Amino acid sequence: MKRFLAVVVGVISLAGGSWSAQGGGQPAATAFDRLKALDGDWVDVDGAFGKKGAVAVTYRVTGGGTAVVESFPVGTPGEMVTVYHKEGNDLVLTHYCSAGNQPRMRATQIAGNAISFDFDGGMNVDPKVSSHMHSVKLEFLGPDEIRATWVNWDKGRADPEHLGVFRVIRKK
Fold first, then answer.
1. pTM recorded for the entire structure
2. Could you state, in order of their start, the residue ranges of all structural domains in the chain?
3. Domain range 26-170, its CATH number among 2.40.128.20, 3.40.440.10, 3.90.1150.10, 2.60.130.10
4. Is residue 54 predicted with pLDDT exceeding 90?
5. Which of 2, 13, 89, 122 has the most beta carbons within 10 angstroms of its beta carbon?
6. Strands (E), 31-144
7. Comparing 15-24, 27-36, 53-62, 160-169, which segment has the lowest mean pLDDT?
């Protein structure tokens, strides 16, 4: 039995070592560095914001490198801001929505080329009643291309009528 436990502990240690080598031991820190690398202006590829080929999203690193501010759709009356930052060992965001609410989300999956965030509270939002952004998945399609899928909830469940998907490329 002791030998079996030693093997199990050894396998777990090796897996942990492998994870550390790939993600520096902190997947949230690695993902946050990836977000910081987005700094700049991004062009709407599909016309999701109404102006295909125009700058639609900006990312700015602020707070001495401790926060990333995403703005979209840039220059419109409905422009919204999302602030990404680390909270301990977690990656979190607050979305300042044009609807007047501020849902908070926490990264629940960081794998491969994607970061998935899920609702974790917020201000001016009752998830059982209010329409609000409830989750987002960011996919890094390449160093200069990303896709974001924002899922809205209304009355306590997903609202497919208000699914927001945009694909942008870095402005050259």
1. 0.84
2. 26-170
3. 2.40.128.20
4. yes
5. 122
6. 40-44, 55-62, 67-72, 80-87, 90-96, 102-111, 114-123, 132-142
7. 15-24
